[in-house]
Structures are given as structure tokens and as C-alpha cells.
């Protein structure tokens, strides 16, 4: 049969399946279709390759395809993603935060499938290593209120994510990052009380689940602390918060195999970035590292906003 250049759907009753999105009232369906490459269909062992394509009321994170990531993301994009991940991990190792602020907007601009979930998956090992490295300076007082605030924040985040489109995600990530930039640049310090700790935990729960950026609200609580104390305590709080966020995403079906593939590819760059931070954490001025976070974050966020409105 001549190829028309469009997706050819088999009969709906033969190859469709119901897909749940983690909430009782949100569902979509997938069909197996033949995907063309240029003017010719992709063939494997003499047959067309099939992928699962969602249709109907499908949220953005439901898109799942069976083709390997290297077939869907360009080599150049993956190389840039590795470099960005290395730089972002180095910055977080020096400052105590900034990995997601730097990497998520830039990678989402390069290719929306590179962020933000893979950053959640690979940040956990980074925060555990940082907490262990600075374990002598850990002070867990107040962590309980922050964790308690994270629970309602995650619930709000899951609700928002259920109705998100790609444009909505782009704008949301950009706005969250720009707000985070303003917080970091202000140098404002919030006195730690049960109320402020609970509130910061709630905000971190929302922004961490939607955009994988939960650090800035918590950083307000530790801006007056020295480097080792700030890094160690933020690492502990991030580790606990990431556990809650990843569990919520997993239970609600908001982590795909594609996200896992991206995370596995980026993970070596994160390890190298962490090792590099061991060499520079006491040599790079904190002011310079923070300025780097702000510049890269602003550039990536503005790019996302431009893509969303163009």
C-alpha cells in the first residue's frame, strides 16, 4: 500500500488499551501505529515498527513510546544534556542547591522529554552523597515540620500535573525558576519557626513535583548559615523531600520508562560533576557560584517562555 505520509491507525477495537493516569477520572487510550521516517516507513525485519501513540484525553506525561531514547532525541541534544548535567551537579556540590534550577529549564528548552522527571531520579544519589560528605554539620531540628508541609504540597502538585499540557509545563517551570532566581538574588533570610518551616515545605512540595525544583523555598531557611551547614542540612531535607515526591509520581503513574532511560544516560555526568565539586567547593567563591546559577537559570527560563508564546 502506498505510504501517504500520515499515521495509519488499525481498527480501534483491535489495538487499543485503556491507560490510567493515576486519578479516578482521567483516562486515555493508545493505539499501535506505524511511524514513517521521511517518505518511507521504518521497517524492522521486513515489518513496520509500531509505537504506542496516545489519543483522546491524554495528559502530557502519558506519552510512552517503545523506540529507544537515542532514536527520539538527537545525539547533539544528548551531548548538551550531559554537559549541562555536569555543570549543574558541580554547582550544587559547591553551593548546596542549584542542580534543578540550572538543568531543568535548559534541558526542557532543548527537548521537553529531557526534563523535569529525569532530574528527580538522578538528584537523589547526589543529595545522599552530599549529606554523607557533610554529615558532621547536619542539624535535623525543624526537619519534621518541613516534611509535614511537603505532604499537602505534593497533593497540590499531583492535582496540577494531572491537567498540565506541554505549554503549561513550560510556562510553569519558567515562572518557578524566575521566582527562585528572585529569592536567591534577594539574599532574604526567613527565621526558622514551625510556621515558616511548614510553609516552605508545602511550597517545595508543589514546585518539586511539578517542575522538579523544590530547593529555593527551603534555601530561604538556611541563607544565613555557613557553607558546610547549609549544604548538609539542605541535602538531608532534599533527600527526604525527593523520596516523597518520587513516591507520589510513581503511585500516580507520572514516571515513564523514557524518563528512566534519560536518567540513566545523564547519571554518569552527575557523578563526574559531584567529583569535580570536591575539588572546587572550598576554592570557588560562593558569590561567583550563585551568580552562575542566576545567569544560567534566567537564560533557560526566558527561552522556555519564548517557546511557549511563539
Query: What gyration radius follows from the Cα positions, in whole Å?
Result: 21 Å
Mean pLDDT: 79
Shape: globular
Any low-confidence stretches, pLDDT <50, length ≥5? 3-7, 12-66
Strand content: 5-15%
Order of helices and strands: EEEEEEEHHHHHHHHHH
Total DSSP E strands: 7
Please estimate the helix content.
55-70%
The largest pleated sheet is described as: 3 strands, antiparallel
How many helical stretches? 10
What is the secondary structure topology, with strand pairs?
Blueprint: E1 16-20, E2 27-34, E3 36-37, E4 40-41, E5 43-44, E6 47-48, E7 50-55, H1 75-95, H2 99-110, H3 117-133, H4 143-162, H5 166-186, H6 194-211, H7 215-219, H8 227-251, H9 257-280, H10 286-309
Antiparallel strand pairs: 1-2, 2-7, 3-4, 5-6
Describe it for me?
There is one protein chain. This protein is mainly α and 310 residues long. The model is unreliable at 3-7 and 12-66 (pLDDT under 50). The chain has 2 domains: 16-58, no CATH class; 70-309, no CATH class. The radius of gyration is 21 Å and the shape is globular. Strands 1-2-7 form a 3-stranded antiparallel β-sheet, with no helix packed on it. A two-stranded antiparallel ribbon has the order 3-4. Helix 2 runs antiparallel to helix 5 (166-186) and helix 4 crosses helix 8 (227-251). Helix content is 60%, strand content 9%. The protein has helices at residues 75-95, 99-110, 117-133, 143-162, 166-186, 194-211, 215-219, 227-251, 257-280, 286-309; strands at 16-20, 27-34, 36-37, 40-41, 43-44, 47-48, 50-55. Strand 1 and strand 2 form a beta hairpin. The two termini are 38 Å apart. The chain contains 10 helices and 7 strands.
Amino acid at each position: 500500500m502506498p505510504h501517504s505520509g500520515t499515521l495509519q491507525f488499525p481498527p480501534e477495537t483491535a489495538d487499543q488499551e485503556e491507560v490510567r493516569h493515576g486519578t479516578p477520572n482521567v483516562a486515555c487510550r493508545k493505539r499501535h501505529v506505524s511511524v514513517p521516517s521521511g517518505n518511507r516507513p521504518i521497517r524492522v525485519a521486513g515489518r513496520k515498527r509500531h509505537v504506542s501513540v496516545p489519543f483522546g484525553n491524554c495528559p502530557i506525561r502519558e506519552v510512552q513510546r517503545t523506540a529507544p531514547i537515542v532514536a527520539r532525541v538527537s545525539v547533539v541534544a544528548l551531548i548538551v544534556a550531559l554537559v549541562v548535567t555536569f555543570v549543574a551537579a558541580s554547582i550544587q556540590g559547591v553551593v548546596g542547591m542549584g542542580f534543578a534550577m540550572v538543568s531543568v529549564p535548559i534541558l526542557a528548552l532543548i527537548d521537553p522529554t529531557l526534563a523535569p522527571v529525569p532530574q528527580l531520579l538522578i538528584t537523589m544519589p547526589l543529595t545522599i552523597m552530599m549529606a554523607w560528605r557533610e554529615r558532621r554539620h547536619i542539624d535535623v531540628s525543624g526537619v519534621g515540620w518541613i516534611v509535614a508541609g511537603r505532604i499537602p504540597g505534593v497533593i497540590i502538585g499531583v492535582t496540577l500535573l494531572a491537567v498540565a499540557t506541554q505549554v503549561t509545563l513550560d510556562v510553569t517551570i519558567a515562572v518557578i525558576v524566575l521566582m527562585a532566581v528572585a529569592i536567591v538574588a534577594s539574599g532574604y533570610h526567613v527565621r526558622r519557626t514551625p510556621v515558616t518551616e511548614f510553609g516552605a515545605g508545602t511550597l517545595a512540595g508543589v514546585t518539586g513535583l511539578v517542575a522538579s525544583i523544590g530547593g529555593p523555598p527551603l534555601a530561604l531557611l538556611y541563607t544565613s548559615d555557613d557553607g558546610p551547614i547549609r549544604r548538609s542540612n539542605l541535602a538531608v531535607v532534599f533527600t527526604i523531600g525527593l523520596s516523597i515526591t518520587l513516591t507520589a509520581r510513581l503511585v500516580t503513574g507520572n514516571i515513564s520508562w523514557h524518563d528512566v532511560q534519560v536518567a540513566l544516560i545523564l547519571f554518569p555526568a552527575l557523578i563526574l560533576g559531584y567529583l569535580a565539586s570536591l575539588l572546587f567547593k572550598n576554592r570557588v567563591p560562593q558569590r561567583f557560584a550563585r551568580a552562575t546559577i542566576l545567569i544560567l537559570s534566567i537564560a533557560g527560563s526566558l527561552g522556555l517562555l519564548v517557546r511557549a508564546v511563539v
